[in-house]
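This section describes the prediction task in plain terms. A model, or a person checking by hand, is given the sequence of a single protein chain and must write out its three-dimensional structure as a string of tokens. No templates, partner chains or ligands are provided. The sample shown here is typical of the held-out split.
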Amino acid sequence: TDEDMKGRIIGKEGRNIRAFETATGVDVDLDEEGVIRLSCFDPVRREIARVCLERLLKDGRVQPGRIEDIVGEVKKEIDRIMFEEGQKLCHGVGVYNLPSPIVALLGRFKYRFSYGQNMIAHTLEETKIGVAIAKETGADANVVRLGCLLHDIGKVITDKEGSHVELGVEFLKKYGLPSRVIDCVGQHHEDTPFTSVESVITYIADA
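The expected answer:
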């Protein structure tokens, strides 16, 4: 029954639920009958917690040590899925040589929605629009391609404070991306004045 299942999740004196929340960084809410609610600001952690919980309940052996093992396994799996998604996104817009940490971070878009649209779908669409405009206007299509692909990368940086524009610029500077590409990211919300036609095109394609 639902009650048995909830009992197993909570564990003796709340041992299991505490171990689960600590290992996943997600809050578990069991107040509603027949519903387990997972809440966390980070959608990737939420996905890891969801997969872990399904596995634990299927398996039936819910105990702190087992919870840690499963969380470890699932984290690795989700990391692999995200890296593959990041690669697919890059290849989908014709980018093949980005540093692995950037590709991995782009893969987090799989679990992130913005204004109701999945961020992978948004980025694919927006990059294709940007490149088409660049070709029509004689702008540098490669700068626009990278600017569009990377414009929202700051939205999936969850371990630092700051706007997604600031976080994105700071992250990309670490990997020595061309300053014209970084300017496209830094200017796509008109936070600072446009310094190139490529920045303007990134802004238009995003809008």
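For orientation: Residues 55 and 70 are 8 Å apart (CA to CA).
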